[in-house]
Amino acid sequence: MNSVIKKTIGALGILCLMSISIVAQIQKGGITGKIYDKVSSEPLIGVTVLIQGTTTGAITDFDGNFVIEDIVPGNYELVCKYVGYADNLISGIEVEEGKKLDLFIELEEKALTLEEGNEIVVVARKTTNNENALMAIRSKEVGLSDPMSAQRLKELNVGDAAQSLKYTPGGSVVDGKFVYMRGLGDRYTNTQLNGSNMPSNDPYRNSFQLDLIPAFMIENLNTQKNYSPDLPGNFSGGNININTKSYPDEFYAKVGFGVKYNDATTFNNGFLTHEGGKYDWLGFGDESRDIPELMQEEAIQDQLTGNYEYKVFKDSELAALADKATKSFNNNMSVSKKTAPINHSINFTTGNVGKLFGKRIGFNAGVKFNRSFTHKANLISNTYQPLAPGGSKLPILNQFTAQESNESPELGGVFDLNYLPFRNHEFKFSMLYNHTADKTTSFYQGQNLASAGMDELIQSRAFKFKERAFLSTQIGGEHNLENLNNIRINWLLNAVSLKQDEPDSRFFANKATVAGGDTSEYRLELNEIDRPAHYFRYLEDDKVEGKIDITIPLLGMKSNRIKIGANYFKKNRSFEEDQFVYTRSGVPAEQGGGRLYSGDPDDFFAADNLGVTTDTVFNGEQYNILGVYASYQTEDKHSYSGFDQVAASYAMVEYSLTPNIEISTGVRLEESNIFVKPTRVDSWKIVDDFVEHVNVKELYLLPSFVGRYGLNNKTNIRAAYSRTIAKPNMRELAPFPSFDFLGGGYRYIGGLEQMNITKINNFDLRFEHYPSSGELLAVSAFMKDFRDPIAKRFSTPSDPREITWENIDKGMVLGTEVEIRKSLGFLGGFAENFEVTTNFSYIMSEIYDEATVNDEDINKQTVDKKPFQGQSPYLFNFILGYKNRDLGLSSNINFNVSGDRLAIVGFKSMPDIYESAFPLLNFSLSKEINNIFTVSLSADNLLNSAYKRTQTLGDDEYIISSYKVGRSYGLSVSFNLDRGE
């Protein structure tokens, strides 16, 4: 913990020194810009940009960027020169003191436009809308993509990448972290950071948690809907590539503060919490959450295993050890309450550009911290039994009402450095760190109706502290070889460390008898409820990746080229679980005795009850009597290690058959190898068989074709075909049961069957029309054919709490998307600052499950064909935006909803579980004042809909879980520290 703080402070100190060292250069005005090919919208490298009548100028870099610094304020003209293109003379350029003018410039090829020697004269266009630039590039790309700029993220007032993707066509977000693209589950969406694959650090998920990427560090993000061979093969819904910021235009420094009030949580004095560590508020567990040092020794664990109380009768040494071990744990298992503070956040960003050894260098850096609170006051959690033969109703098994509170701190930072030591050779370094935690306290109360009468209650307490952290370090380069036909080489090395720790999760349950509305007695009946316990879970993933892409230009149009490349990826995982449970033995009658206790866990764990409670001499011999004692009850088969390895190479060609027809086609050869083995035992036992390890290895060929036909300069038709895959993850292959005490108490069991890699054939068709700058009408249709899709389902028809993963025979998804971006200026002057952005997806899906066909025909209403798991039948996003640049005012009303999605596949006797639609309505308002600070207001989740999971049988709906999280109202202020003048 201390080392992390020291490193963070040290890094900030270095950044400050770098800022001070180069800020002195940025006192005069300047001109920056991007230059693109007008037809292809590709950035042009090596364009000469000069101030007319002088030798002052610059040359564009890999991304078409140029910077001219130290310009005396005044009016100027620029001339842009590039071989094969008409010269551009740009007039109307006004440079102001201490500011940089940002331009968006397009060049036309001579052969397509003018005679030799002529030039084009245009009026300077300031790049006030990066979204428009991305739209222009999108219109000329061959593939099907949905980009989003940093400006768009700011307008939507989103805090992280996950929130932003709710507004991407076909995008929905689950649990605030995982993106479902085109309604498909997170398994079918791949995430990249600057072109490098980002693995998940959640063992139960396959995709990266996008809430870990803060919005302030994003330059743009692009969701590519069609597969191309230079991308990883494991996606079907979409590939999301997040690009972090590169060179800033000038020195900047910003600090922001924010608060958010939630009407269900903030200042609620019933917020649940539990005793933890001194750094819980920061999101870091301290030594108090570690396994006690004594109990980490294997020899001690061996002695204190199982119900060893009879062994200590005459063994005083073992009795002393048991006494010391039991008292070494944090035995606080009582729920406490506090008043929830207001959600709060702070962030700081800075960047600069200057010269190092006379060459351009730039950096961006930022840190953030936020702390949020959520309280679910009326959480419903039910479990139903399988349908009995001839029955028409699902019998209820467990019926609980609950309260659950969660505290979530987050600490993150980013540092990007770009250096251009030689013309056409650029090097990039990027480091991203993020650490989040969830401190969850819950109290469930209800009935197990299968084994108790209406006067019997079960009370359950769960304390969990889950840390998630990742550190990504990237180094890469771009090289343009002018003497070799402008061959471009891109390479990247990336190392990622991901951790998910759950130190000292604590659980305590009891039964209670209710008579006349009052509780008469409390009991621990161990044959019906689990014993009090401590769980410790530690997961660590270390990923390394290397990739190289070589682009070879071909004769003809600028967009003609061959791309070849290779990619290697390996993720190593280690997962450890330890469990310590409490047994109650000889507790004096006056302290409850037997199975009774006072109802207060603090009394149960009172010092007089713990460890050796009685030291008796009988017939001259000393006897040691244990009260409540801890024992090591870890299942060795629950710990495992493994790796996920991918090695691939590809070749593809992008070619313009005519100025209006472009194609991109190629193939990727990829080998996947997933290996899992237990680490504490020699093998896993599955029924009557022993399995030493699980291995899924396969070599596959992934072809791709996409074409674009430009009907005119504003209209395109695109078509694509590809084959992709989806893979099981290591947790799904590891055959052991793990219990989730929150969220319904399900047991997850993997590896019950050999799993196959899913094969997917993808077909896409899109019509696009761009009426004017920043406007769009797009209509898409897609179809996906699945072989061996992977589904989460009940493991048997008779157990409603046991979940596993397995291949379903086949599946199909067929859908359409409509996207509209339109200014409302056509309605009149009053509406010229308003814009509507909306998209709608309608999706039909079906899986065919042979296992269902062979089941007993218990329920004739359940059929063998079902919607695809994780698939929403519709998704709808609507944004009404207002922007007035003269007033520095912007506002948005956002509405988002996706239809009911299949969460867990059932059997005929146990209906499927669905996640219900969750309509979301948000509002934001932002005002910039004197270019110094910005004030933003927000209102989120205004509809306060309920999160629900349900089962349906006939016309009856059965609620599995339901809760609300309340409405939130936020205020944030950001200051431009560099604009104080």
Give the helices and strands, then pairings.
Layout: H1 2-23, E1 29-37, E2 48-51, E3 57-59, E4 65-71, E5 74-81, E6 87-95, E7 100-107, E8 119-123, H2 130-140, E9 145-149, H3 150-156, H4 161-164, E10 171-174, E11 178-181, E12 189-193, E13 196-197, E14 218-224, E15 238-244, E16 252-262, E17 271-273, H5 298-303, H6 316-327, E18 336-338, E19 343-356, E20 359-384, E21 396-422, E22 425-448, E23 456-481, E24 487-515, E25 518-523, E26 533-553, E27 561-584, E28 596-597, H7 601-604, E29 612-618, E30 621-626, E31 628-632, E32 640-658, E33 661-678, E34 684-686, E35 689-691, E36 694-712, E37 715-726, H8 730-733, E38 737-739, E39 747-749, E40 758-769, E41 776-787, E42 790-794, E43 802-807, E44 810-823, E45 834-848, H9 850-853, E46 865-866, E47 874-884, E48 889-898, E49 901-904, E50 913-915, E51 920-929, E52 933-940, E53 947-953, E54 956-963, E55 968-976
Describe this structure in words.
8% of the residues lie in helices and 55% in strands. The radius of gyration is 31 Å and the shape is globular.
What attributes characterize this protein structure?
981 residues; mainly beta; 9 helices; 55 strands
Provide a quick synopsis of the model.
The chain has 981 residues and is mainly beta. Helices cover 8% and strands 55% of the residues.
Provide the gyration radius in Å.
31 Å
Helix content: under 10%
Largest sheet: 22 strands, antiparallel, barrel
- What's the assembly state of these chains? single chain
